[in-house]
Specification:
Layout (H helix, E strand, L loop, with lengths): L11 E4 H18 L3 E6 L4 E4 L1 H18 L5 E8 L3 E8 L30 H11 L4 E5 L5 E8 L6 H4 L10
Parallel strand pairs: 2-4
Antiparallel strand pairs: 1-3, 4-5, 5-7, 6-7
Helix pairs in contact: 1-2, 2-3
The structure holds adenosine-5'-diphosphate.
Adenosine-5'-diphosphate binds next to helix 2 and helix 3.
Length: 176
């Protein structure tokens, strides 16, 4: 179920820094085994209305890629910022980076940078893009070969909370 109209959203109030911190916990031991340091750079909790499962999957995916491409003893930082009309999360790594020709392509189905044989399906970023766009946010990457990669996504602040999610314990029905 990957087409935008097929994505069912379960909107709730959540902490963006909290979702990032949970993803860091989940992938911490994987990074630790390779001597990679993981850091969260966030000045507050950043409360957002979003589908927390989807957003956590996006963060976990970006973080998983960062760990996959970071060198042993590498460094990964997750930044969360308020940019006015939206919150922005960035996963920064110090891996090989991505050639300019592939910065947009890698978000398309099955696209991988040639010569980077690290397994995977080339679908992770496509799914990330679908989830972010379902929230009316944007996802992109900034990188230069040899200088690491910074994957960004935004979540707008004006996503309305569905009435049943605002009222306490209203049966937990998912909204369409
Ligand atoms: P895959 O399952 O191949 O990792 P993704 O859609 O997650 O699929 O990523 C697509 C491609 O983008 C990867 O195969 C890789 O070439 C490139 N890529 C993704 N993240 C990074 C990163 N942090 N550093 C360098 N290249 C990356």
């Amino acid at each position: 179920k990957m087409e935008p109209h097929e994505i069912e959203m379960n909107l709730k109030e959540a902490s963006l820094a909290g979702l990032a911190s949970h993803s860091l916990d989940i992938l911490g031991s994987l990074a630790q085994r390779r001597g990679i340091s993981l850091e969260l750079d966030s000045s507050e909790e950043f409360s957002v209305v979003c589908d927390p499962d989807q957003i956590e999957r996006v963060i976990t995916n970006l973080l998983g890629n960062a760990i996959k491409f970071a060198p042993d003893d590498g460094r990964i930082v997750v930044h969360v910022d308020d940019i006015g009309s939206a919150f922005r999360l960035c996963v920064e790594d110090n891996g090989p980076g991505i050639p300019a020709t592939h910065l947009e392509k890698i978000f398309a189905k099955f696209e991988q940078v040639p010569g980077q044989r690290r397994g995977g399906t080339g679908l992770g970023l496509t799914i990330c893009k679908r989830f972010v766009e379902a929230h009316k946010g944007r996802i992109w990457v900034e990188s230069e070969v040899g200088k690491g990669a910074r994957f960004y996504f935004t979540i707008p602040k004006d996503i309305p909370l569905p009435a049943e999610a605002a009222g306490a314990g209203a049966g937990g029905e998912k909204s369409a």
